[in-house]
Structures are given as structure tokens and as C-alpha cells.
Design a protein that fits this description.
Blueprint lengths: L2 H12 L43 H4 L6 E2 L11 H11 L10 H15 L8 E4 L2 H12 L5 E4 L5 H9 L3 E4 L3 E2 L4 E2 L2 H7 L4 E7 L11 H14 L2 E5 L20 H6 E5 L14 E4 L3 H13 L7 H11 L4 H23 L7 E3 L6 E5 L7 H12 L1 E2 L1 E2 L10 E5 L4 H19 L7
Parallel strand pairs: 1-13, 3-4, 3-7, 7-8, 8-9
Antiparallel strand pairs: 2-10, 5-6, 9-10, 11-12, 12-15, 14-15
The structure holds pyridoxal-5'-phosphate.
């Protein structure tokens, strides 16, 4: 079926609300909806295209004209209505200096216990000023300038960026590509180790390749780090978004050794789409010596005081049944499946392959079959297709030939992105190609 008429048919069957002026030509999603996801409730509708102009969105600042913004890791959905209502109510009260109430610790501990089977003591927990700010504080607390910190590439680019800015040395231990999935390279760790290696930053689940690391891998990593006296700084910000039946294991819950060598940084930022609140983070540090040292550093820098919206949003997000979150995950699975199927069926995209994420809304696209240099690959997506993605090479060794595509948006946008990518690929061979 031709694209336009296909969209019209879908629109007649139940169109998404179109609010964004730049996307006024779009009418509805044509990928079948996952029946398990059920109808959108009156409280949330992930199909709705929300106009983010005027909200100072970093994502949309880079998407001029009618380009699709599918890069930085926030989603184009409003957060859970329960969280919005809690924030609204709190705004009507006095915004004075505020302490972190017991309810906050109970909410975080309760969430970890019920959602992830991880029982944490109240004193293991602290509020944090954002995951990256807090991880940076860990570099400052536990390492010295010139020390080496291991990152497992391709990985979230802010790890390397701040390790360097803080005068430490990032050492790459690239993940091993096994043809259809990645594994951690323990022999690589042995090869790179010397006495100046003081810490390793783990990304669990891993951004951008989407792995929820298996418990055995985490336990082996903990053993290796214990033997070499290396601290594990585990970024678990994507934890609540495990998909397709995969399970997330908190690093410090993987083994007793892991609890001793590790510290976890996480929060509802990604799962409840709260990045703009800046600071809905918390940490878990089971080891009393590391905890005392780290919390003293946070206090010294006055980084231990959470803002009211962060406290209110976190408590609200964690203390009710996660109906919205569960629906969100099904919707994300639908988006991923939709794009995977389209790519598989298209001769034009010539083997661009999605590495299926086990968690979160970031799709790692293997474009090596196109045979383009990285710069040309980026131009293909960002300029020719008008789909703004992240450059795979920015995530370090192993990222060349890949791009990262954010599918945390209405399905109609995912479909439109696919059509634009397909069209741009077709024009690589036939510059005048038109795909209907
Ligand atoms: C793995 C990972 N860690 C941390 C962050 C940012 O966290 P925060 O905004 O709390 O610093 C992101 C955002 O994309 C991320 O993907």
C-alpha cells in the first residue's frame, strides 16, 4: 500500500492527536498496536504528538525545520499523571528550605524491594544532585588526578567527558561484539590493568547498546574488581525500563563482593521522564567506609540537599502501582518491534540493523552494511533524512558505523523516521529515487 493512503487508512481507524506544527503532515501510526497494550486510558495516550516548542527543550533546539529530534535521551511523553498531580499540589504550598523526609527513603527502598527484589538499608541511601554530577563527585572522592578509570565502550559519552575534565584518564575496555549481541571483555580488563587503575564505570542497563547485565557477569566483574582493588561506580539510571522480559539486576545485589566494591547511582529520571527537574537522583552505597567517605564529600560540597520537586516527584513515582510505567514499557516495545520489522522488510535500507535493546528507549542501529564513513553516515541521517540521531562514534571504541536513535516518542514519529531513512538510503544509489 502506498504510504500516504496507508496513513489515511490508519487515521480513519483512530488517529493520534497532532499538535506539533512541524509535523502537521502526519496523521497516524500504521504499525499495528500491541493488543496487550490495550486502549489508551483517558489519563495517558502515548500516541499523542506533543508540541515541545517554547519549553527550552535541548532535543528540539537541534532539530531545525521539520527535522525529527531523535537523539538526546528524554522522551516526548508527559510524565505519569500521579507525579504531575503531586507536583501541582505541592506548588500551592510554601516553598521554604526543605529536609529530605523519611517518606523519601521509604519510597526509594520500597521501590527497589518491590520492583527489583533488592532490600536496602535506610542508611545506604542518599539523595544526589543528578547521576552524572554525583558520579563526578565519586571520581573526585576516590581517585586522584592522573589515575585511570575504566569505561566499557561504546558507552554514554559523558563518562569519558568528565573523567577527562576532572584530570583523570579514561581507559577503554570495548565490549565484544558477538554477531548479534555484546559481552563484557574480562581478558581485556586483564590486559589493560595496572596499579593506576582505580575505578570502573559500569552502565547497567548499558547505554547505548541496551544490555541488562546478567547477574553472573556482574558477580564476575565484582570479583575482578575486588582482586584488583578497583571501585565500581554503577550508573543504573535506565534500570526501570527493562523490556521484552529481560531483568535488571542492581550491581550491589549481584553478590556480597559486589555490595562491597560497588556504589549505585540511579533515579526515576529516565523511567518517569523527569530529566528537566535536574536532580531526581539517589545513590546506594552498602559499604560503610565508602559510604562515609562519599557522603562526607557530598556534604562538604553542599550537594546533599534535594530540591522540593525532586523529592515530591520521586515519592509520587515510587509509591503507587506503576500502571503508567508498565504501559510505557509495552509502548516502547511496540515502537522497537515496529522499526525492526520495517528495517528487515526494506531492501532500500540495505541491512541497517537494530540491535534489540533489553532496556530503555535508545535503539543502537548497526549501519556498517551501508559501508559509509562515519561523517557521511551522520549526514545521511541528520541532513538527508532529517532524522537527528546521536553519532555512534561519540560513544568510543566500537561505535563507528553505528548511530543511536531515540524511540521514546509517538509511534507515528518512529514510522516517519523509518520512511525518511529509507528514502535517504534509496537516494544513495539512485539520487532521484522516490519512495511512496
Ligand atoms: C547512562 C546515563 N547516565 C546518566 C545520564 C544523565 O543523568 P543525569 O541527568 O541525572 O545526570 C544519562 C542521560 O542520558 C544516561 O543515559
Amino acid at each position: 500500500m502506498k504510504r500516504r493512503s496507508f496513513l489515511k487508512t490508519a487515521a480513519a481507524a483512530g488517529a493520534a492527536t497532532i499538535l506539533s506544527p512541524g509535523l502537521a503532515g502526519l496523521t497516524a501510526s500504521s504499525c499495528a498496536k500491541d493488543p496487550a497494550a490495550g486502549p489508551a486510558t483517558s489519563d495517558w495516550n502515548f500516541d499523542e504528538v506533543i508540541d515541545r516548542s517554547g519549553t527550552w527543550s535541548i532535543k528540539y533546539r537541534r532539530a531545525e525545520g521539520d527535522k525529527l529530534a531523535m537523539w538526546i535521551a528524554d522522551m516526548d511523553f508527559r510524565t505519569d499523571p500521579v507525579v504531575r498531580e503531586a507536583l501541582r499540589q505541592r506548588l500551592d504550598t510554601v516553598m521554604g528550605y526543605t529536609f529530605t523526609p523519611d517518606e523519601y527513603y521509604e519510597a526509594v527502598a520500597g521501590w527497589l524491594r518491590t520492583q527489583h527484589g533488592f532490600a536496602v538499608e535506610r542508611e545506604w541511601l542518599s539523595t544526589c544532585p543528578g547521576v552524572i554530577t554525583s558520579i563526578n563527585q565519586a571520581y573526585l572522592t576516590f581517585t586522584r588526578p592522573g589515575d585511570k578509570i575504566v569505561i566499557q565502550t561504546p558507552v554514554y559519552d559523558h563518562f569519558r567527558m568528565y573523567i577527562e575534565r576532572l584530570g583523570r584518564i579514561p581507559v577503554e575496555n570495548p565490549l565484544l561484539w558477538k554477531g548479534d549481541h555484546y559481552e563484557m571483555d574480562f581478558e581485556g580488563l586483564d590486559r589493560l590493568y595496572d596499579r593506576t587503575v582505580k575505578a570502573l564505570v559500569l552502565c547497567n542497563p548499558h547505554n547505548p547498546v541496551g544490555i541488562t547485565w546478567p547477574r553472573e557477569t556482574l558477580a564476575s566483574l565484582a570479583d575482578w574488581c575486588a582482586q584488583h582493588d578497583v571501585l565500581v561506580i554503577s550508573d543504573e539510571i535506565h534500570a526501570d525500563l527493562a523490556l521484552f522480559g529481560h531483568e535488571y539486576t542492581p550491581f550491589c545485589h549481584a553478590s556480597e563482593t559486589a555490595a562491597r566494591v560497588g556504589m549505585i547511582f540511579s533515579g526515576p529520571t529516565k523511567s518517569f521522564n523527569l530529566a528537566g527537574l535536574s536532580g531526581t537522583a539517589w545513590c546506594v552505597i552498602p559499604d560503610p567506609v565508602k559510604r562515609a567517605q562519599y557522603l562526607a564529600a557530598l556534604h562538604a560540597a553542599k550537594l546533599n540537599e534535594a530540591a522540593v520537586p525532586s523529592l515530591v516527584a520521586t515519592i509520587a513515582a515510587y509509591t503507587h502501582e506503576p500502571l503508567w510505567l508498565n504501559d510505557l514499557k509495552k509502548y516502547l516495545e511496540g515502537n522497537i518491534t515496529c522499526l525492526e520489522e520495517r528495517l528487515k522488510a526494506s531492501p532500500e535500507t540495505r541491512g541497517i540493523r537494530a540491535v534489540r535493546p533489553q532496556a530503555s528507549f535508545l535503539l543502537w542501529l548497526d549501519c556498517r552494511a551501508l559501508g559509509l564513513p562515519q561523517e557521511a553516515l551522520m549526514a545521511l541521517f541528520n541532513e538527508k533524512a532529517g532524522v537527528v540521531v546521536n553519532n555512534g562514534a561519540s560513544y568510543g571504541m566500537g561505535g563507528e558505523g553505528f548511530v543511536r536513535l531515540n524511540i521514546g516518542c509517538p509511534r507515528i514519529i518512529v514510522e516517519e523516521a523509518f520512511h525518511r531513512i529509507e528514502h535517504a538510503c534509496a537516494r544513495l544509489i539512485h539520487p532521484d529515487a522516490m519512495i511512496e
